[in-house]
Design a protein that fits this description.
seven-stranded antiparallel β-sheet, 311 residues, disordered N terminus
Length: 311
């Protein structure tokens, strides 16, 4: 009995030590610098409602003209009857409803954002899908089959095409401080709904596309150098806070003499810090010059202006 008791005690101690070691590993260096990926797979809505930026200005001769209860009703969602203006409609035809976008705020989330968007092309939102039921007079009658958000008169119609299904790769660990891999690097120039900070499921537009070899299902790593914070009007406020302790004889100055005279102590340049990965994104669609991607894993907020590197 005594031998059995000692054996059980030793087994419990060993199990406890193993568990503590495992927890320490997950809560320590590995969890911080190599967090385990827990990816969110794209849904149908993620793929068909993500929007895009394209160099090509889409035709707007065909568009939503109104609906069954116009002018009292101006927004149309799934199941609603809509009237289509233009030509070339055929019963049974499926059409995608898109909207060319403009940002009424005109506020730049990072320096040069508007210039980058103009260089990338025209931003569009994807609103849903309609099916033509019949043609009468100069108008086609259609039903909204799928709705991402309400359609309104003036929204454009383009041919509908099925998108390839995306299957995520097996999750692994994200190397948060991985050096540049030499593959195409772009920038998150804009996000869906003009969002500035995104988490899992957020849609972003990146200024590299099929011309750089990017294809649907590829992955981008969102990375942020610490020097980006210097240019941000909010994040840069932290650089104006003191890091000095009263007991330090030679306090460090952050970013060359910001708080102490240069030469009185060590100078810390955050631009010399390694860049950090903040998340991963899978490509939903591509144009020659842009990619639409979805955040499938994030360890902190992904920002408009972050760099995006092909994995």
């Amino acid at each position: 009995m005594k031998k059995t008791g000692w054996f059980l005690a030793l087994l419990l101690v060993a199990s406890g030590a193993w568990a503590q070691g495992g927890l320490a590993d997950d809560a320590g260096t590995n969890a911080t610098t190599f967090p385990i990926e827990r990816m969110k797979a794209p849904t149908y809505a993620d793929q068909y409602c993500a929007g895009f930026i394209t160099k090509e200005l889409l035709p707007n001769a065909n568009y939503v003209g109104g609906g069954l209860h116009s002018p009292s009703t101006t927004k149309y969602t799934i199941g609603d009857i809509v009237f289509l203006t233009g030509s070339g409609y055929q019963p049974g035809q499926q059409l995608e409803v898109v909207r060319e976008l403009r940002d009424p705020n005109r506020f730049e989330l990072f320096d040069g954002q508007q210039k980058m968007i103009r260089a990338a092309g025209h931003p569009y939102s994807e609103l849903g899908r309609v099916r033509v039921l019949d043609t009468r007079n100069k108008t086609a009658i259609a039903r909204v089959e799928y709705s991402c958000e309400p359609m309104v008169p003036g929204d454009s119609l383009i041919p509908f095409s099925e998108k390839p299904q995306i299957t995520l790769r097996e999750p692994g660990r994200l190397d948060r401080f991985m050096p540049a891999n030499g593959k195409p690097m772009g920038r998150i120039i804009m996000a869906r709904d003009f969002d500035s900070q995104l988490g899992w499921g957020g849609k972003v537009y990146i200024n590299v596309g099929s011309n750089q070899g990017v294809k649907v299902g590829d992955y981008f790593r969102a990375v942020r150098p610490y020097s980006n914070d210097l240019k941000d009007p909010v994040d840069s406020l932290s650089f104006k806070a003191s890091t000095v302790e009263d007991t330090q004889r030679r306090p460090a100055s952050l970013e060359a003499g910001m708080f102490t005279k240069e030469g009185s102590g060590p100078v810390v340049h955050v631009r010399d810090f390694p860049r950090r990965a903040v998340g991963e994104m899978v490509v939903l669609s591509v144009t020659p010059t842009t990619s639409t991607a979805m955040v499938v894993f994030a360890v902190e907020d992904v920002h408009a202006g972050d760099f995006a590197e092909v994995e």
